[in-house]
């Protein structure tokens, strides 16, 4: 199958410092890909370049179209979406208004917006219960769900998640990553950046290990999870989804 996103020999720099050095990566439709690696490896930098917040050099194509010439808004219109670390919600607005803003760029009609909201509430029922609540009064897990729900309002074809489990309790991590896993059924491709390597490899099809701006290892997630190098470096500390109640 032809990849929906194709990256080849991508380089991203902050001034004189090259943070991503020749990364190649691809995602097919409906595939979940995880990118794991230590702090400062370049994971967020990669996502920011894909959405258009940072310039990059090399091949960066979405459905065969070169993204380099397109600004962030055009990339979102094409179906790309990034949920940044910690979600960046509008704290003073309600859950419902945050969700509505997620679809803002799509200029949806009333009926389509309503159907989209119902679909998101179906996937994330907690948001329906908290519809009228201010976003800044939500728990950490609920905030992350709202950030995910808001992204889903834009009907993304490729959803990029930057550390959705950051700062959350293990049970909530399990909830959120399980929800992410179900999005595959809706044909959404997912690029998941996580420090919680074990959980990320459990829900993804394939994984990439990014170290100091380069891909150190790649393969099917199950194979990566049993690789002694991955086990020694990344799987010692975090929580196993199966072990949770
Ligand atoms: P973390 O998990 O800690 O967020 P990461 O893998 O996402 O790490 P990046 O945030 O992409 O890593 O950072 C990659 C490298 O680029 C790091 O060395 C970082 O210090 C550097 N970097 C990130 N943002 C900037 C910036 N705005 N200006 C200069 N250097 C930056």
Strands, total number: 10
* Top-tier CATH class of the largest domain: Alpha Beta
Percent range of helical residues: 25-40%
Low-confidence stretches: none
Number of domains: 2
Radius of gyration: 17 Å
Q: Strands of the biggest beta sheet: in what spatial order? A: 6-7-8-3-9-10
Order of helices and strands: EEEHEEHEHHHHEHEHEEHH
Major β-sheet profile: 6 strands, mixed
Coarse shape:
globular
Q: Which structural class do you get from the secondary structure elements?
A: alpha/beta
Q: How many helical stretches?
A: 10
Query: How far from one another are the termini?
Result: 37 Å
- The averaged pLDDT comes out at 90
CATH superfamily of the largest domain: P-loop containing nucleotide triphosphate hydrolases
Plain-language structure description:
This protein is of the alpha/beta class and 245 residues long. The protein has two domains: 1-79 and 156-245, P-loop containing nucleotide triphosphate hydrolases (Rossmann fold); 88-155, no CATH class. The protein is built from ten helices and ten strands. It has helices at residues 43-51, 72-78, 95-102, 110-123, 125-129, 140-152, 170-182, 197-203, 221-225, 228-234; strands spanning 5-14, 17-27, 32-36, 57-62, 65-66, 80-83, 158-162, 189-194, 206-211, 214-220. A six-stranded mixed sheet has the order 6-7-8-3-9-10, with helices on both faces. A hairpin with a 2-residue loop joins β9 and β10. α3 (95-102) packs parallel to α6. The mean pLDDT is 90. Residues 14, 17, 19, 37, 39-45, 195 line the site of adenosine-5'-triphosphate (ATP).
């Amino acid at each position: 199958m032809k990849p929906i996103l194709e990256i080849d020999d991508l380089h991203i720099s902050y001034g004189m410092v090259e943070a991503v050095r020749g990364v190649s990566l691809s995602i097919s439709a409906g595939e979940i890909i995880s990118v794991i690696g230590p702090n400062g490896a370049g994971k967020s930098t990669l996502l920011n370049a894909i959405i258009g917040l940072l310039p990059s050099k090399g091949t960066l194509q979405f459905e065969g179209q070169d993204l380099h010439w397109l600004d962030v808004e055009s990339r979102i219109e094409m179906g790309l979406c990034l949920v940044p670390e910690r979600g960046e919600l509008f704290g003073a607005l309600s859950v419902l208004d945050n969700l509505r803003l997620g679809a803002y760029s799509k200029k949806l009609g009333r009926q389509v917006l309503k159907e989209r909201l119902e679909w998101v509430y179906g996937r994330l029922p907690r948001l329906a219960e908290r519809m009228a609540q201010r976003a800044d009064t939500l728990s950490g897990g609920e905030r992350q769900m709202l950030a995910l729900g808001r992204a889903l309002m834009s009907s993304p074809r490729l959803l990029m998640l930057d550390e959705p489990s950051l700062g959350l309790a293990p049970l909530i991590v399990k909830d959120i990553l399980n929800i992410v896993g179900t999005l595959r059924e809706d044909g959404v491709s997912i690029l998941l950046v996580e420090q919680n390597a074990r959980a990320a490899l459990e829900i993804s099809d394939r994984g990439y290990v990014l170290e100091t701006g380069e891909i150190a290892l790649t393969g099917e997630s199950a194979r990566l999870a049993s690789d002694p190098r991955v086990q020694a470096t990344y799987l010692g500390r975090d929580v196993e989804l199966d072990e949770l109640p």
